[in-house]
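Re-running the complex after MR caught last week's input typo. The corrected sequence lines follow. Everything else is unchanged.
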Amino acid sequence: MTGPLDGVTVVDFSQFLAGPYAALRLLDLGARVIKVEQPDRGDLCRYHYVSDTRIDGESTLFHAINRGKESLTLDLKSPEGRARAHRLVAVADVVIQNFRPGVIDRLGLSYATASALRPGLVYGSISGYGESGDWAGLPGQDLLAQARSGVMGLSGNRGQGPVPVGLPLADIAAGACLAQGLLAGLYRQARSGIGAHVQTSLLEALIDLQFEFLSTWMNNGRVPPQRLAQGSAHGYLAAPYGVYDTAKGHLALAMTPLPALAEALDQPGLAEPLADLDAFRDREAIRALLQAVFATRSADAWERDLGARGIWCARVRDWPDMLAEGGPAVAGMLRPAGDLARVAAPLRIDGVRPEPALRGPGLNEHGAALASEFGLG
Amino acid sequence: MTSDLPLAGLRVLDFAQFLAGPAAALRLADLGAEVIKIERPDGGDLCRAMVVNEQRLDGDSLVFHTFNRGKKSVAADLKNPGDLARVRALVGTADVMIHNFRPGVMERIGLGFEAVQALNPGLVYGAVSGYGAEGPWKDKPGQDLLVQSLSGIAWLNGNDGDGPVPTGFAMLDVATAGQLVQGILACLVRRGVTGRGGLVEVDLMSAALDMTFEQFTCFLNDEAGQPRRHAQGNANPYQPAPYGVYRTADGHMALAMAPLARVAALLQAPEIAAFGQNQAFVRLDEIKAVVAGVLIREPTQHWLDILEPAGLWCAPVLDWPAFAATEGFAALDPVQVIRTESGAEARTTRCPIRIDGKLLRNPAGGPALGADTEAVLGPLPAAAPA
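Corrected-run output:
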């Protein structure tokens, strides 16, 4: 399909995940993405193996994040490489970079320089922790940003110590924020011709992800969220919110009025003790009462029967279960064919989900073609 | 808001409730758009009554103000023909509308995408659902914890042997909002070229797959099946040792990707060097146990002073009081005060995007229910009924 950003050219100097993820979102929406890489090894993500999964000797991750992009190598430290980069920037609509603060200025590709080369340019920068302050020079890595942001105190159970979110939360959130800012900039550019410098950081994105909680905490005299001893899922929500053990599997329960739950559970004996308890203050006691009931049947049975009665619940799945049972909502995002099974874009435009490319580019795969197209010499 | 913001002049109608839809509209508001909430006259957005941690502002829940600051409110009963005609007239003036009704509801009201296109061909229409419009889960509630539970995310957090560990905040609502904003803005860019609007559909399940796309791609291309969480300090089941969180003599620290030989040399721990780099996956639990045995001996700062100057990726694990007291937090200036019409104040965070070096702030609280009904609908001529 031709996406809404058809005709938009993105020149992406970033590596690893946050910046390339922003570029991937623009690509799925129809933009052309030219990935500029250092000549010797390219994006470090090409060699960043998680698990032992590789495609063509390069990490699966690299292909997942960079599918459909074009690769060009330039040595930005040499005058020739820099001159070619400048020629490329002059024809770009969007530039993305995630060097540590200050580095891009030394490479001669700062926003000021780039926007002089290409008036109206929309330019995106992602840092770890912003460009000033004690943390500006620290490595902008997902786990470390999570560690500093307080987010590790929100998941897991009381007494468990910090529990990281087990996926690259900060990278993806920051990439999404950057994509939004770049798109807003493109919209204004089309109307007024004015370019924009869009900046965000892993830490700002993590603060934004926690905005509901942080707002509560900043206004309640800084009473921290309390994780439950078991099955905790939200430190500020009342019972029965959380995860319960059952005779087989686990059941997640979302916000549910306790009287409605007692009725749906067909447990007349539960109504009386529940009536004496406060849904927030007595969360642990309520959880213990409910846990005893949930332990009597399987999570499947609870999900079926309670779901039919309008209670918001779900059996907790792992990935094989989700693939087996999820139907079109899951299958619609997956492309198992070809040499790389892929995850497609999480949105549909005019009813159509953008089709993901088969793989990422080889290092400098498009170098000669791009040099010829843009007169890079 | 100043008028040079990128979305100045754009009108957004927010028919959504709770979190994902209103958070998308909030982002558009922070970027300069005018956002008008369309709410039921009796009670409005259910989030007004969803009091978390017993905190309210001006009678509505604090979280309502957190998601809806700076917006206007129009009260309209979409089942009442008179109100609906006025809302249709308003739709005729809008650039964007957002809703998160279950699939089919807006079509029955007469505000489905096709009906609205006929009314306003340039309108960009955003729809949020839990699981898309089809499939066995389409009628399940599109609620954050439930989608985390269905999508396998609850098995990525915590340690091997723990039960499922959900992420303890509405991660998927916020992520879905971000996807919706991206799709809407891309269609607005296209509208500038073609004049036509568009339909953007997002759902929490797709956002869940996208949040995990890196790891899920490993799963799809790996015969190993469901990833196994690390025995201790798990922070990503697919990362090799030493990746994770460790206890120190006085707290916790995080250690990201690092070559084992470097870790061994810097920690002066030859027992770590006994493992080859090619064992970092297959023997990760053993290696992490050895690293943990070393790091527990000294306080966090002791280790940071050794590892950070050497370029190893590590950090102290901070809770909110510690985080909010840091220079790093202050440098971002991430807090803003919002004020309701009556003068009640609360503190919340700002938009995480900076444009041209400026922080995007909007000090208005959430609107009182229907506060702008007459101001917004009054000047409009009635539209023909659906």
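None of the earlier attempt is carried over here. The first strand of chain B starts at residue 11 and ends at 14. The two ends of chain B are 35 Å apart (CA to CA).
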